[in-house]
Protein backbone atom coordinates (compact mmCIF):
# COMPACT_ATOMS: atom_id res chain seq x y z
CA UNK A 1 0.00 0.00 0.00
CA UNK A 2 1.22 3.48 -0.88
CA UNK A 3 0.35 6.61 1.08
CA UNK A 4 0.01 10.31 0.27
CA UNK A 5 0.26 13.37 2.49
CA UNK A 6 -1.91 16.48 2.31
CA UNK A 7 -0.97 19.60 4.26
CA UNK A 8 -3.78 22.11 4.76
CA UNK A 9 -2.21 25.38 5.92
CA UNK A 10 -5.16 27.54 6.90
CA UNK A 11 -5.59 30.93 8.49
CA UNK A 12 -6.16 29.87 12.09
CA UNK A 13 -4.25 26.62 12.01
CA UNK A 14 -2.87 23.78 9.92
CA UNK A 15 -3.73 20.12 9.58
CA UNK A 16 -1.65 17.37 8.01
CA UNK A 17 -3.41 14.16 6.99
CA UNK A 18 -2.12 10.81 5.75
CA UNK A 19 -4.33 9.00 3.21
CA UNK A 20 -4.14 5.68 1.43
CA UNK A 21 -4.62 5.15 -2.32
CA UNK A 22 -8.42 5.22 -2.01
CA UNK A 23 -8.59 8.46 -0.06
CA UNK A 24 -9.16 6.79 3.30
CA UNK A 25 -7.90 8.88 6.20
CA UNK A 26 -5.16 7.08 8.13
CA UNK A 27 -4.09 9.75 10.61
CA UNK A 28 -4.00 13.50 11.13
CA UNK A 29 -2.39 16.14 13.28
CA UNK A 30 -3.29 19.79 13.68
CA UNK A 31 -1.83 22.93 15.19
CA UNK A 32 -3.24 26.40 15.85
CA UNK A 33 -1.31 29.64 15.41
CA UNK A 34 -2.26 33.21 16.19
CA UNK A 35 -3.10 36.26 14.15
CA UNK A 36 -1.99 39.68 15.30
CA UNK A 37 -4.04 42.87 15.14
CA UNK A 38 -1.69 45.87 15.47
CA UNK A 39 -4.41 48.35 14.43
CA UNK A 40 -8.15 48.19 13.73
CA UNK A 41 -8.59 46.45 10.39
CA UNK A 42 -5.00 45.14 10.35
CA UNK A 43 -4.39 41.38 10.42
CA UNK A 44 -0.88 39.90 10.46
CA UNK A 45 0.74 36.50 11.03
CA UNK A 46 4.28 35.32 11.65
CA UNK A 47 5.33 33.14 8.71
CA UNK A 48 8.07 31.47 10.77
CA UNK A 49 5.53 30.43 13.41
CA UNK A 50 3.31 28.98 10.69
CA UNK A 51 6.17 27.05 9.09
CA UNK A 52 7.16 25.51 12.43
CA UNK A 53 3.56 24.41 13.08
CA UNK A 54 3.21 22.99 9.55
CA UNK A 55 6.38 20.90 9.93
CA UNK A 56 5.40 19.77 13.44
CA UNK A 57 1.95 18.65 12.34
CA UNK A 58 3.46 16.76 9.40
CA UNK A 59 5.90 14.88 11.60
CA UNK A 60 3.27 14.01 14.20
CA UNK A 61 0.74 12.83 11.60
CA UNK A 62 3.32 10.48 10.09
CA UNK A 63 4.29 9.15 13.52
CA UNK A 64 0.64 8.60 14.46
CA UNK A 65 -0.08 6.78 11.20
CA UNK A 66 2.37 3.97 12.06
CA UNK A 67 2.97 3.49 8.34
CA UNK A 68 6.48 2.88 7.04
CA UNK A 69 7.63 6.32 5.79
CA UNK A 70 9.22 4.56 2.80
CA UNK A 71 5.68 3.89 1.55
CA UNK A 72 4.81 7.61 1.52
CA UNK A 73 5.21 8.55 -2.12
CA UNK A 74 3.89 12.10 -2.40
CA UNK A 75 3.14 15.31 -0.52
CA UNK A 76 1.31 18.45 -1.52
CA UNK A 77 0.11 21.68 0.02
CA UNK A 78 -3.19 23.52 0.40
CA UNK A 79 -2.66 27.18 1.27
CA UNK A 80 -4.74 29.87 2.89
CA UNK A 81 -6.21 32.80 0.96
CA UNK A 82 -3.77 35.04 -0.76
CA UNK A 83 -1.16 36.34 1.68
CA UNK A 84 2.18 37.54 0.39
CA UNK A 85 5.57 36.34 1.59
CA UNK A 86 8.26 38.78 0.43
CA UNK A 87 11.84 37.59 -0.12
CA UNK A 88 15.09 39.43 -0.81
CA UNK A 89 17.83 38.46 -3.31
CA UNK A 90 19.10 35.73 -0.97
CA UNK A 91 15.53 34.39 -0.50
CA UNK A 92 15.46 35.66 3.08
CA UNK A 93 12.12 36.87 4.41
CA UNK A 94 11.83 40.65 4.23
CA UNK A 95 8.88 40.99 6.60
CA UNK A 96 8.30 38.16 9.10
CA UNK A 97 4.83 39.47 9.89
CA UNK A 98 2.89 38.80 6.70
CA UNK A 99 -0.16 40.93 5.96
CA UNK A 100 -3.11 38.53 6.06
CA UNK A 101 -5.81 38.19 3.42
CA UNK A 102 -8.37 39.49 5.94
CA UNK A 103 -6.36 42.71 6.39
CA UNK A 104 -8.11 45.84 5.08
CA UNK A 105 -5.27 48.39 5.03
CA UNK A 106 -5.17 48.17 1.23
CA UNK A 107 -8.24 50.41 1.05
CA UNK A 108 -5.92 53.28 2.03
CA UNK A 109 -4.32 53.12 -1.45
CA UNK A 110 -7.19 51.71 -3.50
CA UNK A 111 -8.24 55.11 -4.77
CA UNK A 112 -4.79 55.65 -6.27
CA UNK A 113 -4.97 52.33 -8.14
CA UNK A 114 -8.18 53.43 -9.82
CA UNK A 115 -6.07 56.03 -11.63
CA UNK A 116 -4.11 53.17 -13.22
CA UNK A 117 -7.05 51.21 -14.66
CA UNK A 118 -10.85 51.45 -14.73
CA UNK A 119 -12.88 48.69 -13.10
CA UNK A 120 -14.53 47.59 -16.36
CA UNK A 121 -11.18 46.79 -17.98
CA UNK A 122 -9.86 45.27 -14.77
CA UNK A 123 -12.83 42.91 -14.49
CA UNK A 124 -12.62 41.84 -18.12
CA UNK A 125 -8.91 41.08 -17.77
CA UNK A 126 -8.84 39.44 -14.34
CA UNK A 127 -12.38 38.15 -13.76
CA UNK A 128 -12.77 40.19 -10.58
CA UNK A 129 -13.36 43.76 -9.49
CA UNK A 130 -10.49 45.99 -8.46
CA UNK A 131 -9.92 45.63 -4.72
CA UNK A 132 -11.77 42.31 -4.42
CA UNK A 133 -8.73 40.79 -2.73
CA UNK A 134 -6.03 42.64 -0.84
CA UNK A 135 -3.14 42.37 -3.32
CA UNK A 136 -3.05 46.18 -3.15
CA UNK A 137 -1.11 45.73 0.10
CA UNK A 138 1.88 45.67 -2.25
CA UNK A 139 1.13 49.29 -3.13
CA UNK A 140 0.59 50.06 0.55
CA UNK A 141 4.05 48.70 1.32
CA UNK A 142 5.56 50.74 -1.50
CA UNK A 143 4.02 53.88 -0.01
CA UNK A 144 4.33 53.32 3.74
CA UNK A 145 7.24 50.88 4.13
CA UNK A 146 9.66 51.78 1.31
CA UNK A 147 12.62 50.57 3.39
CA UNK A 148 11.13 47.06 3.28
CA UNK A 149 9.88 47.26 -0.28
CA UNK A 150 13.33 48.23 -1.59
CA UNK A 151 14.62 44.84 -0.41
CA UNK A 152 11.95 42.80 -2.20
CA UNK A 153 13.19 40.59 -5.01
CA UNK A 154 10.47 37.90 -4.99
CA UNK A 155 6.75 37.95 -4.26
CA UNK A 156 5.39 34.60 -3.09
CA UNK A 157 1.99 33.23 -2.28
CA UNK A 158 1.89 30.63 0.49
CA UNK A 159 1.70 27.92 -2.21
CA UNK A 160 5.06 28.58 -3.85
CA UNK A 161 6.67 29.59 -0.55
CA UNK A 162 5.78 26.35 1.25
CA UNK A 163 6.48 24.11 -1.73
CA UNK A 164 9.93 25.69 -1.77
CA UNK A 165 10.32 25.02 1.98
CA UNK A 166 9.46 21.37 1.36
CA UNK A 167 12.17 21.13 -1.31
CA UNK A 168 10.74 22.36 -4.63
CA UNK A 169 13.45 23.25 -7.12
CA UNK A 170 11.94 26.68 -7.81
CA UNK A 171 8.91 28.87 -7.10
CA UNK A 172 5.74 27.42 -8.63
CA UNK A 173 2.15 28.62 -8.20
CA UNK A 174 -1.18 27.01 -9.08
CA UNK A 175 -3.89 28.72 -11.12
CA UNK A 176 -6.16 29.35 -8.14
CA UNK A 177 -3.52 31.09 -6.03
CA UNK A 178 -2.28 33.03 -9.06
CA UNK A 179 -5.84 34.14 -9.77
CA UNK A 180 -6.11 35.51 -6.23
CA UNK A 181 -2.93 37.50 -6.79
CA UNK A 182 -5.11 39.55 -9.19
CA UNK A 183 -2.48 39.71 -11.92
CA UNK A 184 -3.51 36.61 -13.89
CA UNK A 185 -5.49 36.91 -17.11
CA UNK A 186 -8.76 35.09 -16.55
CA UNK A 187 -8.96 33.74 -20.10
CA UNK A 188 -5.37 32.83 -21.01
CA UNK A 189 -4.38 32.04 -17.37
CA UNK A 190 -1.00 33.73 -17.69
CA UNK A 191 0.52 36.73 -15.94
CA UNK A 192 -0.95 39.83 -17.57
CA UNK A 193 1.34 42.77 -18.20
CA UNK A 194 -1.40 45.39 -17.82
CA UNK A 195 -2.58 43.92 -14.49
CA UNK A 196 0.99 43.59 -13.22
CA UNK A 197 1.60 47.27 -13.96
CA UNK A 198 -1.31 48.24 -11.70
CA UNK A 199 0.69 46.96 -8.73
CA UNK A 200 4.09 48.34 -9.82
CA UNK A 201 5.81 44.95 -9.83
CA UNK A 202 7.73 42.95 -12.43
CA UNK A 203 6.89 39.50 -13.77
CA UNK A 204 10.40 38.24 -12.97
CA UNK A 205 9.56 38.68 -9.27
CA UNK A 206 6.50 36.40 -9.53
CA UNK A 207 6.39 32.59 -9.38
CA UNK A 208 5.97 30.36 -12.43
CA UNK A 209 2.31 29.57 -13.14
CA UNK A 210 1.67 25.81 -13.48
CA UNK A 211 -1.58 24.63 -15.06
CA UNK A 212 -1.48 20.93 -14.19
CA UNK A 213 -2.63 20.05 -10.65
CA UNK A 214 -0.21 17.54 -9.17
CA UNK A 215 2.80 18.39 -11.30
CA UNK A 216 5.98 17.25 -9.51
CA UNK A 217 8.12 20.29 -8.67
CA UNK A 218 10.82 18.69 -6.53
CA UNK A 219 11.70 15.98 -4.04
CA UNK A 220 12.12 15.97 -0.26
CA UNK A 221 15.71 16.50 0.85
CA UNK A 222 17.47 15.05 3.90
CA UNK A 223 17.17 18.26 5.94
CA UNK A 224 13.43 18.54 5.22
CA UNK A 225 12.98 14.84 5.98
CA UNK A 226 14.47 15.34 9.44
CA UNK A 227 12.05 18.18 10.20
CA UNK A 228 8.88 16.71 8.73
CA UNK A 229 9.21 12.93 8.87
CA UNK A 230 8.68 12.73 5.10
CA UNK A 231 11.01 10.23 3.40
CA UNK A 232 13.97 11.48 1.40
CA UNK A 233 13.02 11.55 -2.28
CA UNK A 234 9.27 11.84 -1.65
CA UNK A 235 7.67 13.63 -4.61
CA UNK A 236 6.56 17.22 -3.96
CA UNK A 237 3.52 18.00 -6.09
CA UNK A 238 1.83 21.28 -6.92
CA UNK A 239 -1.24 21.72 -4.71
CA UNK A 240 -3.59 24.64 -4.67
CA UNK A 241 -5.42 27.41 -2.94
CA UNK A 242 -7.41 25.98 -0.03
CA UNK A 243 -10.72 26.60 -1.79
CA UNK A 244 -9.54 24.82 -4.93
CA UNK A 245 -8.26 21.86 -2.93
CA UNK A 246 -11.58 21.71 -1.09
CA UNK A 247 -13.65 21.90 -4.27
CA UNK A 248 -11.52 19.11 -5.80
CA UNK A 249 -12.01 16.93 -2.72
CA UNK A 250 -15.73 17.69 -2.76
CA UNK A 251 -15.95 16.41 -6.32
CA UNK A 252 -16.92 19.75 -7.86
CA UNK A 253 -16.52 18.63 -11.45
CA UNK A 254 -19.87 19.26 -13.12
CA UNK A 255 -21.93 22.37 -13.85
CA UNK A 256 -24.59 23.16 -11.27
CA UNK A 257 -22.62 21.93 -8.25
CA UNK A 258 -21.94 24.50 -5.53
CA UNK A 259 -19.40 23.86 -2.81
CA UNK A 260 -19.87 25.84 0.40
CA UNK A 261 -16.70 26.06 2.45
CA UNK A 262 -17.63 27.51 5.82
CA UNK A 263 -14.33 27.93 7.59
CA UNK A 264 -12.49 31.10 8.58
CA UNK A 265 -14.20 32.72 5.60
CA UNK A 266 -17.44 31.70 3.96
CA UNK A 267 -16.82 30.60 0.38
CA UNK A 268 -19.24 29.58 -2.36
CA UNK A 269 -17.87 27.92 -5.51
CA UNK A 270 -20.33 27.17 -8.32
CA UNK A 271 -19.15 25.13 -11.31
CA UNK A 272 -20.30 26.36 -14.73
CA UNK A 273 -19.53 25.14 -18.26
CA UNK A 274 -18.75 28.52 -19.79
CA UNK A 275 -17.12 31.77 -18.79
CA UNK A 276 -20.00 33.82 -17.35
CA UNK A 277 -19.28 37.37 -16.25
CA UNK A 278 -21.42 39.09 -13.65
CA UNK A 279 -22.80 42.34 -15.14
CA UNK A 280 -22.54 43.86 -11.66
CA UNK A 281 -18.92 42.65 -11.32
CA UNK A 282 -19.46 41.20 -7.86
CA UNK A 283 -18.91 37.51 -8.62
CA UNK A 284 -15.36 36.41 -9.42
CA UNK A 285 -14.90 34.10 -12.39
CA UNK A 286 -11.93 31.75 -12.41
CA UNK A 287 -10.88 28.44 -13.94
CA UNK A 288 -11.65 25.06 -12.39
CA UNK A 289 -8.13 23.54 -12.57
CA UNK A 290 -7.95 20.07 -14.02
CA UNK A 291 -11.51 19.97 -15.41
CA UNK A 292 -11.57 22.51 -18.24
CA UNK A 293 -14.63 24.37 -16.97
CA UNK A 294 -15.11 27.42 -14.72
CA UNK A 295 -15.96 28.49 -11.19
CA UNK A 296 -18.15 31.34 -10.04
CA UNK A 297 -16.56 32.36 -6.76
CA UNK A 298 -17.81 34.59 -3.98
CA UNK A 299 -16.78 34.82 -0.35
CA UNK A 300 -17.35 36.55 2.94
CA UNK A 301 -14.36 37.76 4.91
CA UNK A 302 -15.57 36.09 8.09
CA UNK A 303 -17.78 33.04 8.67
CA UNK A 304 -16.80 30.43 11.24
CA UNK A 305 -14.20 32.95 12.43
CA UNK A 306 -17.19 34.91 13.77
CA UNK A 307 -18.13 31.85 15.80
CA UNK A 308 -14.52 31.57 16.93
CA UNK A 309 -14.72 35.21 18.08
CA UNK A 310 -17.82 34.23 20.08
CA UNK A 311 -15.88 31.31 21.57
CA UNK A 312 -12.83 33.37 22.52
CA UNK A 313 -14.69 36.43 23.78
CA UNK A 314 -17.83 35.10 25.45
CA UNK A 315 -17.48 31.36 26.00
CA UNK A 316 -14.55 30.89 28.40
CA UNK A 317 -16.66 28.62 30.64
CA UNK A 318 -17.64 26.43 27.69
CA UNK A 319 -14.01 26.18 26.58
CA UNK A 320 -12.94 25.18 30.11
CA UNK A 321 -15.75 22.62 30.30
CA UNK A 322 -14.80 21.14 26.93
CA UNK A 323 -11.23 20.58 28.16
CA UNK A 324 -12.51 18.73 31.22
CA UNK A 325 -14.90 16.66 29.13
CA UNK A 326 -12.42 16.04 26.31
CA UNK A 327 -14.91 17.43 23.80
CA UNK A 328 -14.95 20.11 21.12
CA UNK A 329 -16.00 23.52 22.53
CA UNK A 330 -17.94 24.18 19.33
CA UNK A 331 -20.16 21.18 20.09
CA UNK A 332 -21.07 22.77 23.41
CA UNK A 333 -21.66 26.14 21.72
CA UNK A 334 -24.00 24.71 19.07
CA UNK A 335 -25.76 22.80 21.84
CA UNK A 336 -26.28 26.12 23.61
CA UNK A 337 -27.73 27.58 20.41
CA UNK A 338 -30.26 24.74 20.24
CA UNK A 339 -31.77 26.10 23.46
CA UNK A 340 -32.92 29.14 21.48
CA UNK A 341 -35.46 29.01 18.65
CA UNK A 342 -35.34 29.51 14.88
CA UNK A 343 -35.20 33.28 14.44
CA UNK A 344 -33.10 33.58 17.62
CA UNK A 345 -36.07 35.11 19.47
CA UNK A 346 -35.79 38.28 17.43
CA UNK A 347 -32.00 38.73 17.57
CA UNK A 348 -30.24 39.43 14.27
CA UNK A 349 -26.48 39.06 13.85
CA UNK A 350 -24.49 40.67 11.07
CA UNK A 351 -21.28 38.67 11.10
CA UNK A 352 -19.12 40.99 8.95
CA UNK A 353 -16.51 41.41 11.68
CA UNK A 354 -13.76 42.23 9.18
CA UNK A 355 -15.59 44.01 6.37
CA UNK A 356 -18.48 43.04 4.13
CA UNK A 357 -18.24 41.21 0.80
CA UNK A 358 -20.76 39.65 -1.52
CA UNK A 359 -23.78 41.74 -2.46
CA UNK A 360 -22.80 44.56 -0.10
CA UNK A 361 -19.07 45.14 -0.43
CA UNK A 362 -17.73 47.54 2.18
CA UNK A 363 -14.37 47.00 3.86
CA UNK A 364 -15.34 49.38 6.68
CA UNK A 365 -18.37 47.37 7.78
CA UNK A 366 -18.27 45.68 11.17
CA UNK A 367 -20.36 43.10 13.00
CA UNK A 368 -23.58 44.09 14.73
CA UNK A 369 -26.30 42.57 16.91
CA UNK A 370 -29.83 43.92 16.66
CA UNK A 371 -32.93 43.09 18.65
CA UNK A 372 -31.12 42.42 21.93
CA UNK A 373 -33.34 42.87 24.99
CA UNK A 374 -33.12 42.17 28.70
CA UNK A 375 -34.60 38.78 27.94
CA UNK A 376 -31.92 37.85 25.39
CA UNK A 377 -29.86 34.81 26.40
CA UNK A 378 -26.46 33.52 25.36
CA UNK A 379 -28.36 30.83 23.44
CA UNK A 380 -30.09 33.55 21.38
CA UNK A 381 -26.74 35.20 20.59
CA UNK A 382 -25.25 31.86 19.53
CA UNK A 383 -28.29 31.02 17.39
CA UNK A 384 -28.22 34.47 15.79
CA UNK A 385 -24.54 34.09 14.83
CA UNK A 386 -25.17 30.69 13.23
CA UNK A 387 -28.15 32.10 11.34
CA UNK A 388 -26.28 35.26 10.31
CA UNK A 389 -23.46 33.24 8.75
CA UNK A 390 -25.98 30.98 6.98
CA UNK A 391 -28.07 33.92 5.73
CA UNK A 392 -25.00 35.46 4.13
CA UNK A 393 -24.27 32.23 2.27
CA UNK A 394 -27.90 32.08 1.13
CA UNK A 395 -27.59 35.61 -0.21
CA UNK A 396 -24.44 34.67 -2.14
CA UNK A 397 -26.05 31.59 -3.71
CA UNK A 398 -29.08 33.59 -4.83
CA UNK A 399 -26.80 36.11 -6.57
CA UNK A 400 -25.14 33.36 -8.60
CA UNK A 401 -28.40 31.67 -9.52
CA UNK A 402 -29.54 34.94 -11.11
CA UNK A 403 -26.61 35.02 -13.52
CA UNK A 404 -25.92 31.30 -14.02
CA UNK A 405 -29.11 29.33 -13.39
CA UNK A 406 -30.26 26.91 -10.73
CA UNK A 407 -27.81 25.30 -8.34
CA UNK A 408 -28.50 21.57 -8.53
CA UNK A 409 -26.62 20.32 -5.47
CA UNK A 410 -24.77 21.86 -2.52
CA UNK A 411 -21.81 20.20 -0.87
CA UNK A 412 -20.93 21.60 2.53
CA UNK A 413 -17.49 21.47 4.10
CA UNK A 414 -15.39 23.19 6.71
CA UNK A 415 -15.93 23.13 10.47
CA UNK A 416 -19.69 23.48 9.98
CA UNK A 417 -19.87 19.97 8.51
CA UNK A 418 -19.10 18.53 11.96
CA UNK A 419 -22.36 19.91 13.40
CA UNK A 420 -25.61 18.16 12.49
CA UNK A 421 -27.50 21.10 13.99
CA UNK A 422 -25.80 23.62 11.73
CA UNK A 423 -26.00 21.35 8.65
CA UNK A 424 -29.76 21.03 9.11
CA UNK A 425 -29.98 24.80 9.52
CA UNK A 426 -28.25 25.21 6.15
CA UNK A 427 -30.72 22.82 4.53
CA UNK A 428 -33.71 24.62 6.05
CA UNK A 429 -32.51 28.14 5.23
CA UNK A 430 -31.21 27.38 1.72
CA UNK A 431 -34.12 25.01 1.03
CA UNK A 432 -31.73 22.69 -0.75
CA UNK A 433 -30.35 19.25 0.12
CA UNK A 434 -26.97 19.53 1.81
CA UNK A 435 -24.46 16.80 0.94
CA UNK A 436 -21.50 15.81 3.10
CA UNK A 437 -18.48 13.89 1.89
CA UNK A 438 -16.94 11.00 3.78
CA UNK A 439 -13.73 12.89 4.56
CA UNK A 440 -14.42 16.26 6.22
CA UNK A 441 -10.79 17.38 5.94
CA UNK A 442 -11.25 18.50 2.34
CA UNK A 443 -8.29 20.88 2.19
CA UNK A 444 -5.93 18.11 3.21
CA UNK A 445 -7.63 15.52 0.99
CA UNK A 446 -7.51 17.82 -2.04
CA UNK A 447 -3.81 18.41 -1.48
CA UNK A 448 -3.24 14.67 -1.04
CA UNK A 449 -5.14 13.98 -4.28
CA UNK A 450 -2.71 16.35 -6.02
CA UNK A 451 0.17 14.46 -4.39
CA UNK A 452 -1.34 11.21 -5.67
CA UNK A 453 -1.47 12.57 -9.22
CA UNK A 454 2.18 13.56 -8.96
CA UNK A 455 3.15 10.15 -7.57
CA UNK A 456 1.27 8.29 -10.30
CA UNK A 457 -1.45 6.84 -8.06
CA UNK A 458 -4.14 8.77 -9.97
CA UNK A 459 -4.08 9.40 -13.70
CA UNK A 460 -5.63 12.88 -13.43
CA UNK A 461 -8.04 14.98 -11.36
CA UNK A 462 -11.15 13.09 -12.53
CA UNK A 463 -9.54 9.76 -11.65
CA UNK A 464 -8.66 11.14 -8.21
CA UNK A 465 -12.28 12.25 -7.67
CA UNK A 466 -13.65 8.89 -8.82
CA UNK A 467 -11.45 7.03 -6.34
CA UNK A 468 -11.51 9.35 -3.33
CA UNK A 469 -14.81 11.28 -3.17
CA UNK A 470 -17.82 9.65 -1.54
CA UNK A 471 -21.07 11.31 -0.42
CA UNK A 472 -22.09 9.72 2.87
CA UNK A 473 -24.82 11.93 4.32
CA UNK A 474 -27.50 14.29 3.06
CA UNK A 475 -29.59 16.74 5.07
CA UNK A 476 -32.95 17.49 3.48
CA UNK A 477 -34.86 20.77 4.00
CA UNK A 478 -37.95 20.73 6.18
CA UNK A 479 -40.97 23.03 5.92
CA UNK A 480 -41.84 23.55 9.58
CA UNK A 481 -39.22 26.30 10.05
CA UNK A 482 -39.54 27.83 6.59
CA UNK A 483 -41.76 30.78 7.52
CA UNK A 484 -39.75 31.91 10.54
CA UNK A 485 -36.48 31.66 8.61
CA UNK A 486 -37.95 33.64 5.71
CA UNK A 487 -39.04 36.38 8.12
CA UNK A 488 -35.65 36.34 9.84
CA UNK A 489 -33.85 36.51 6.49
CA UNK A 490 -35.93 39.52 5.48
CA UNK A 491 -35.07 41.21 8.78
CA UNK A 492 -31.39 40.35 8.25
CA UNK A 493 -31.46 41.91 4.76
CA UNK A 494 -33.02 45.14 6.00
CA UNK A 495 -30.53 45.36 8.85
CA UNK A 496 -27.60 44.73 6.49
CA UNK A 497 -28.73 47.44 4.07
CA UNK A 498 -29.03 49.90 6.94
CA UNK A 499 -25.57 48.99 8.26
CA UNK A 500 -23.92 49.38 4.87
CA UNK A 501 -25.57 52.76 4.37
CA UNK A 502 -24.24 53.82 7.76
CA UNK A 503 -20.68 52.78 6.92
CA UNK A 504 -20.93 54.38 3.47
CA UNK A 505 -21.75 57.66 5.18
CA UNK A 506 -18.75 57.30 7.50
CA UNK A 507 -16.17 56.49 4.81
Give me some keywords for this one.
alpha/beta; 21% strand; 21 strands; 507 residues; single chain; 7-stranded mixed β-sheet; Nucleotidyltransferase, domain 5; 38% helix; 6-stranded mixed β-sheet
Textual characterization of the structure:
The structure is a single chain. By secondary structure, the chain is α/β, with parallel strands linked by helices. Helix 11 packs antiparallel against helix 14 (378-404) and helix 16 (442-454) packs across helix 17. The protein has a domain at 300-438 and 473-505: 2-Layer Sandwich (Nucleotidyltransferase, domain 5). A hairpin with a 4-residue loop joins strand 2 and strand 3 (25-32). 38% of the residues lie in helices and 21% in strands. The protein is globular. The model has no long low-confidence stretch (mean pLDDT 92). It has helices spanning 47-65, 107-113, 119-126, 137-144, 146-149, 158-166, 175-180, 193-198, 222-228, 242-249, 304-314, 316-325, 329-337, 378-404, 420-430, 442-454, 461-468, 482-505, and strands at residues 3-9, 13-20, 25-32, 44-46, 72-79, 85-87, 97-99, 154-156, 172-174, 208-210, 216-219, 235-241, 257-262, 266-272, 284-288, 293-300, 348-350, 368-370, 409-413, 434-437, 471-475. It has a 7-stranded mixed beta sheet, sandwiched between helices. The chain has 18 helices and 21 strands.
Amino acid sequence: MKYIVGIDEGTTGCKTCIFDEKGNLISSSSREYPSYYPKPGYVEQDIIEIKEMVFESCKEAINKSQVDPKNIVGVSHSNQGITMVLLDKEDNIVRNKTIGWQDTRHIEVLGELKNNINNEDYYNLSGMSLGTYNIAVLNWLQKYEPENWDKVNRICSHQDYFLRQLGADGFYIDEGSANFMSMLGVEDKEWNEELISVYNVKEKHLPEVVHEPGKVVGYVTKSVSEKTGLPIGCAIALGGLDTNCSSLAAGATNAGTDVLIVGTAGVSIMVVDKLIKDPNKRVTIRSNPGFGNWQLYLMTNTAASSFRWFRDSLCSLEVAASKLMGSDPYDIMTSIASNSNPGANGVTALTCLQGSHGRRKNENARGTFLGVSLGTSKADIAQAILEGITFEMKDILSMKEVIAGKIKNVRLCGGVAKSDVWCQMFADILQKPIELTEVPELGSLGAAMCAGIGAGIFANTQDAVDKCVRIVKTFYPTQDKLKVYQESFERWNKAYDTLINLYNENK
